[in-house]
Amino acid sequence: MTSKRMKRLTSLMVAGAVGAAAIWTAPNAAQTTKDTPISLRDTFQVGNNGLCEAQIVEPEAGAGLFDRRYSIICRDAAAPIGTMWVVRGSHADKPESRFGVPGATCRRAEEAAPLEGLAGAIELVCDAADSPLRSRLIVGEIGNRTYAASGFNAYASALRLGLSSLATDRVAQGSVDIPLTQATDALAFARQQAEAISADQALLEAYRRSNQGEFAEAAEFFAASAEVLSGKGAIDARLNEGLLQSNLGNYAEAERLFGLTRAEANNDPVLSRLQRNYETIHALNQGRAQTALARVNEPLANEFGDPDALRKLTIGPAIANRLEAESQSAGGTYSVTLTPLERAQLLDGQANYLRATALRLVGRTGEATQFLRAADTAMAEVRDGRVESIIWLRAQVLGELAEVAEIESRPAEAEGFHLAGIELLQGRYPESPALQSARAQLAGFYARSGRRGDALALYRGVVEDAEGRPLPALRSLMTPYFNLLLGSEQGIASDASAAADIFAASQLLQRPGLAQTQAVLARELSVGSDEAAQLFRKTINIGRAIERLRSGIAEMEPVAEMSRETAQLLAERQAQLEQLQAEQAQVLESLAQYPRYRAVTGSAIDLDQLRGILEAGEVYVKLVTLEERSFVIYATKDDALAYEAAIAPEELEEAVDRLRESIAIAEGGQVLTFPFDIERSRKLYLSLFEPVADRLSAQRHIVFEPDGAMLRLPINLLVTDDESVERYKERLAENGDDYDFTGTKWLGRGTQISTSVAATAFRDVRAAAPSDGAKSYLGLGENTPIGEGAGASRTRAALAGGEDCVWSPNIWANPIAADELYTAAERFGAGAAVVTRDEFTDSKIRSREDLADYRILHFATHGLVTAPQPECPPRPALLTSFGGEEDSDGLLSFAEIFGLRIDADLVILSACDTAGGATVGATREAGVTSGGDFALDGLVRAFVGAGGRTILASHWPVPDDYDATKRLISGLFETDGASTAGALRTSQLELMDSAETSHPFYWAAFAVVGDGTIPVRR
After folding, report:
1. Which candidate, 259, 232, 438, places its Cα nearest to that of 322?
2. Could you please report the per-residue DSSP string of 736-783?
3. Residue 560 — pLDDT band, cuts 50, 70, 90?
4. Angle between helices 317-326 and 199-211 (to 10 degrees)
5. Own/partner pairs for 846-850, CB < 8 Å, 24+ apart?
6. CB-based contact 936:694 (threshold 8 Å)
7. By CB count within 10 A, which of 413, 419, 941, 947 is most buried?
8. CA-CA distance, 501 to 578, in Å (whole number)?
């Protein structure tokens, strides 16, 4: 079985499916109606927009037999936002002493409308000396009972609606207002959220996102949880983080994380099973089926064979809190009583599934089936199969049964298994990435079975239903779709509609590097305190409510004979869904105005829209590398086509690596250059672009969206004719200079070239208004070197990697001279400034309030895109001086860049590796062989999100020899009104035509990321 099949299967692995306590839905939960008295419910919805709910909790010590207490849980809060009580006796005369915040000073709330059911209730707003947040206290009496609610003032609407529901014994109608700028203390609330994206909240986010298939974002939140938790909770979070890193292809980081948990996990019956299963998945992700089989068959360090040992274990608060993350049924209930014994049984069921997968991959399909049956039986026995989060795993078991049936030539059974798995996911997780992946698997089966029409219809449905939302797991599933669309033996689709279909699908195939980058930036945005951050949180919260309602509706709709009450509840949910969708559309329209949001969100445009913004003489070229094949989409204003490139992704990696080696290698602090491999360059040009080779080189402006290995190589150095190669060889035969490439027809010689990170990003930058900055130019660079002292001890670890992931102080020892900054500044006169040495610190840059005043920002410093060690993941950063502040670490990380407020037409990153992967030498020294797309997706995207429009970034250490860098940069500013790509090309031509600088090392490093037609100075 090929690796393609292995990856297709493992792309559906979901962290947390049995890694945490699971939700159990009681029978007929969907038939609970609004007519059930609140006093008889353990949980009820607060308001009618599905954002908050009340959950009954244990009364305080000394409470009466009929006293009740509730927590109010809202989707965007790090903890319950309030508490409600129903108690015997009168407490309204001194409510602060019974229900209030200790030590708070309270006053009557202004303009408090009468409360339904508690007309005489009093409302107080309270301030506590040790908290920036106001609280609200509401108290009223009915007969001999007191009704009270206390919580965040920003959530006054939730407190009021919840208390009205208790007083009237039915769900009060009204909407919960999410705190936004209109709330008097919304900013203070947001700051607390930023400080306390607490362990509970981080875990909730982690499991929510993991259950939806958003692996990169989930990994970030699991990492945050592991840092603040202790004991078993920390191990659980770290194990899930390790699995997600493996799912993303970051195998070295996953191995490091699994190593951190192995010893302690062996001492716990649940965690040891979790470790075994996740390491098995890790092996499968790498295509190591035999290793996976050996790992899943390893005896546990302690089998805990006595069930009593498991029965005596208890579930702690951390695991209980995660149940909220898995509650997908609107209005449903969940139980915290899933025992460790049940959890262990589920994990053993998962182990049987993994064992079957490994057996199938090594060709032992006959043995695989029995373990799949055993897995399904084990899972079905726990709570009669109603453990909701196990729906994911049961669907995967059905998918694996389908794979086995297809191999054994039982197509009808294979289709039945696929359809059954889809039905399971459709009912519980409608529109989730896992559901779309399951549908794509079925479409692939149809394609392999010769059912072309069925396959195309299903593939198109998957793309349409995604609505532009990235689905990274589809990268391993879409090759059959592209092949069907191309159709001809030549692998070229001149039909514009086929090209449009491929283009639409390609925008969903998010790269793992981009997924991780966006996850980090989204987390930064989600904990901010400005309006963009608050709007972002609001759309996430509304999105969760929409997911819950869709799930509840999907659960109810198949009911054949619906009671009047159930039909009424279904209608109410559908109305709520329409209301939330309309509200979501309004919020998204507001958010779209913020560059930071556009940098973290997934969106798409169709091919006709893209062609509509292209001008005559322009072409947009998008490369898509899947598992075994590469595809190219070529679009101009007048036509479009798609084709399969004549080079597989693995061959492309080899070709790019060899070309990079012939440009520059950094070894021992020195940059070594070699004669450029001109023949390989010519061959690569044809391999990628032969069907359009003549048309491409004739265009005035090429916008290239790279993928795979081409993220690490600018296309301007590709050779467009055979004569250039022959002329160079003849020169060498006559003992000519092997570094002389004058006269070569480079692609960048005859055309302007821009690099695009995404079609929507290109659209946005082309439509963006010019900078409002009043000043022209700010140059920053030439860090102050450090020794082995205090500064070195504060260098940042890559991803909570510990001491092994700290950068060496030596990287600060060779600052880039500021000459190019001063040369550029001279051309702008009084409107320019240069910041260097001790003023060029990460802390001072972060605290500057005038960055948005400059139309051009120019950083001349080292860029770091690989990791210090192979087990440390890349986290792109720009190197700075150290400041005296405790939070200064000499690095401006891409997450910190994202938080800057800039308004720049152009950002110049004159630093090594800010547009591509690390130099070959650097990666060899570190032992790192992956992660080359983190620079383009990290540093560049962070600057775009911060407010930059076009970025000029470098693919390798830019040389000082022959003043090459100074000549390139100064040439940018020579002609007012010149386009960025045009000005760069003019500077490059001068170097190309000089024998001593004609080697691509000197002129080809810079890439214009964005829209190169925008003028440098406007």
Report:
1. 232
2. --TT--TT--BHHHHSEEEE-S-HHHHHHHHHPPPP--SEEEEEEE-P
3. low
4. 40
5. 846/892, 846/896, 846/899, 846/900, 849/901
6. no
7. 941
8. 29
Which residue type does 470 have?
P
- pLDDT for the residue 685: 97
Cα 842 to Cα 415, 835, 862, 891, 896, distances in angstroms: 57, 12, 13, 6, 9
Statement: residue 460 has pLDDT above 90: yes
552-557 contacts, C-beta under 8 A, 24 or more apart:
552/30, 552/329, 552/330, 552/331, 552/332, 553/330, 553/577, 554/426, 554/427, 554/428, 554/430, 555/30, 555/329, 555/427, 555/428, 556/30
- From CA 960, how far away is CA 966, in angstroms rounded? 8
pLDDT (tens digit per residue) in 919-931: 333 322 222 223 3
User: What gap in Å lies between CA 248 and CA 282, rounded to an integer?
Assistant: 10
Q: Partners of 145 in the beta sheet?
A: 88, 142
Question: Mean pLDDT across the stretch 257-282?
Answer: 90
Q: How far, in Å, CA of 333 to CA of 24, rounded?
A: 8
φ/ψ (deg, to 5) at 665: -135, 130
The yes-or-no verdict on residue 98 having pLDDT over 50 is yes
Cα–Cα distance measured from residue 103 to residue 470, given in angstroms and rounded to the nearest whole number: 49
CA-CA-CA-CA dihedral for 771, 772, 775, 780, to nearest 10: -50
Mean pLDDT across 233-250: 84
The whole-angstrom separation of Cα 235 and Cα 232 is: 5
Residue type present at position 875: R
pLDDT digits (tens, 9 = 90+) for 799-845: 334 455 667 777 788 888 888 899 888 888 888 999 999 999 999 99
What value does the CA radius of gyration of the chain take, rounded to a whole number of Å? 30
- The SS3 assignment for 1007 reads strand
Place of tokens 């940098």: 599
Answer yes or no: is pLDDT of 548 > 90: no
What local confidence, expressed as pLDDT, does residue 997 receive? 92
What SS3 string covers 138-173? Answer: EEEEECCEEEEEEEEHHHHHHHHHHHHHHHHCCCCC
Q: Is 331 left (phi over 0), alpha (psi -120 to 50) or beta?
A: left
Q: Please determine, for residue 204, whether its predicted confidence score (pLDDT) is greater than 70.
A: no
Q: How far apart are CA 827 and CA 974, in angstroms?
A: 8
Average pLDDT over residues 981-1004: 93
| Residue appearing with tokens 């009104």 | 977
Lowest-confidence region among 16-25, 392-401, 508-517: 16-25
**Per residue in 683-722, pLDDT tens?**
999 999 999 999 999 999 999 999 888 988 999 999 999 9
| Residue keyed to tokens 């690490």 | 712
- How far apart CA 440 and CA 462 sit, in angstroms, is 7
Q: Do 677 and 654 contact (CB within 8 A), yes or no?
A: no
Mean pLDDT score, 636-661: 93
Burial of 231 (0-12, 13-18, 19+ CB in 10 A): exposed
* Per-residue confidence (pLDDT) for residue 947, from 0 to 100: 83
Taking CA atoms, 238 is separated from 251, 255, 875, 994, in Å, by: 14, 11, 19, 55
DSSP E strand boundaries for 375-504: 492-493
- The pLDDT tens digits of the residues spanning 105-116 come to 888 887 677 888
Burial class (CB in 10 A: 0-12, 13-18, 19+), 616: exposed
- Quote the CA–CA distance of 61 and 69 in Å, as a whole number: 12
Distance CA 279, CA 858 (A): 45
Place of tokens 């509200």: 583
